[in-house]
Fold:
Amino acid sequence: MRLHRNLVFAVIDTLKAVFNENKYADKEIAKALKRDKRWGSRDRSFIAETTYDIVRWKRLYAEIAEVKEPFSRPNLFRLFAVWATLRGIELPDWKQLEDTPTRRIKGRFDELSQTRKFRESIPDWLDELAVKELGEEKWTKEIAALNLQAPVVLRTNTLKNNKKELRDSLFKENIETHTIKGYKDALELNERANVFSTEIFKKGAFEVQDASSQLVADFLEVEPGMRVVDTCAGAGGKSLHLAALMENKGQIIALDIYENKLKELKRRARRAGAHNIDTRTIENTKVVKKLYDTADRVLIDAPCSGLGVLSRNPDAKWKLQPEFLEKIRKTQAEILDRYSKILKDDGKMVYATCSILPSENQKQVEAFLQREAGKDFRLLNQKIVLAHESGYDGFYMALLEKSK
Ligand SMILES: C[S@@+](CC[C@H](N)C(=O)[O-])C[C@H]1O[C@@H](n2cnc3c(N)ncnc32)[C@H](O)[C@@H]1O
Structure:
């Protein structure tokens, strides 16, 4: 592979924003990709993937390069030189890459790879916490899986086409996919491609949605004609799936505390041809109270640490703080207590997160069932989806039933 100066510079600038200015990697990468219209798909994937790699392996690379945060520009080039050296890429004779100690880098890599927190590039506190929650063995396997690049998975929008039709249409656009056993509407890309630029995406034939995330709407056992409340709907990944499962019949009320996310949901619903979704911003407690005892189904896709989706958002390893985790656990418990009241008697509710920590998952559900708010609920089923077992995001979902 030959390194191109303008592409490497784009990577360095993006890393500076992510590491030193606390910006989000996905947003900064998107910005960087707009810099030069002449860049082709290979150039763009070089910028995106190299940046994600260096974000993912920040701790390991910084230890190898012996540099500390905040990273100066020369130090960001040192991190880049470590990335290139470990991939066996020949370094060009640019002055920024002069005197790269190739042999020392390889030696340090072998040495540091003996220790999990360096090998897997994770903060000490997170490593300790995860060992406490999952145990050494499971965590060692899980973090290794969460450090792999995430596959691209699509969900067939059954309001517009079936999986076979979608697969054929993608094939005509030179995008090859395969089905995944156990995930009924999913297609996985054989090779990464920019699916958003296809005509069929614009027509709403599919959504990009991880395979594990596709299990959640199914878990709620919805039927056409039901009244369903998606309490933490965000930009609507699950609401859109619910609309398809309900064949556009019945009503979905999508709630969130952020109006802008619900606006995006509306836009996506139009593209997907999902006509049965109403959005309501939770501006005050009345919005939720009005819905008490009205829903056949409630989905709580709760805000969480996001530790199950590290392969997609590697910068969360560095942005996440122990105090945030404590706060989010409290929010999850409050949300469970309040939003469970939306359910009618004999209705069903799913509590889900994209976390792998029992304290955000099964422990939250167990505690809810012990509290006053949970006294009429019972656990029907739960799924603990770990990345190293499934090959997709880490997820948790619990199906609860209310009966007096
Ligand atoms: C895991 S995300 C939801 C993802 C979404 N369901 C999807 O499938 O695309 C959690 C959502 O909860 C929202 N949220 C945070 N606190 C909330 C609260 N107190 N009530 C309702 N929604 C909340 C966040 O804005 C975020 O959109």
In short: The radius of gyration is 23 Å. Residues 322-339 form the longest helix (18 residues). The longest strand covers residues 343-353. The domain at 215-402 is CATH 3.40.50.150 (Rossmann fold).
